């Protein structure tokens, strides 16, 4: 585990978060701490706990240079960041169902009978899902883990920026993934901000909420 002292201050984590455009390129994040942050992010919920998110952490200069060519309009933040996390959603996520539920039994989180009952119910349900329905489900789940990862990073004292402008049709294969299986969700650059991000206006709750 990292020795970094995480902040528990709600205002600092939530209201202090900014989408950062430039980072201090001298700041490096150890793979130990990055692993810790990813583990904390994956506490996020997912449909029947299938955890369909997959990460490619791009922290080498070679990897970031390659990514910079795929994200031309965001190249500066890619190259100056400590790392960029490419978030994907796995169309074959149910392949891990036995491991997920079996480990839950082993750890005492659920009885074996419940595991068997749930898997017997989920297997035909997942087998019957259309490709469109599966994509919609896993994209939602991967969005949840992405937001949680940005808040976790903030708690560790780092800044982030979600990036949607990149060559989504190329990124999986560039980093050795099956493009038909792994659906690109977003890039998340992470590091220490070199300049303060701008505050942005948020619509008031009464504008965006209906009470019934």
UniProtKB/TrEMBL annotation:
InterPro entries: Nitroreductase, Nitroreductase-like. GO terms for molecular function: oxidoreductase activity. This is NAD(P)H nitroreductase. It comes from the Bacteria. Belongs to the nitroreductase family. Residues 15-192 form the Nitroreductase domain. It holds the Pfam family Nitroreductase. Keywords: Oxidoreductase. PANTHER family: NAD(P)H NITROREDUCTASE YDGI-RELATED, NADH DEHYDROGENASE_NAD(P)H NITROREDUCTASE XCC3605-RELATED. CDD domains: MhqN-like (cd02137).
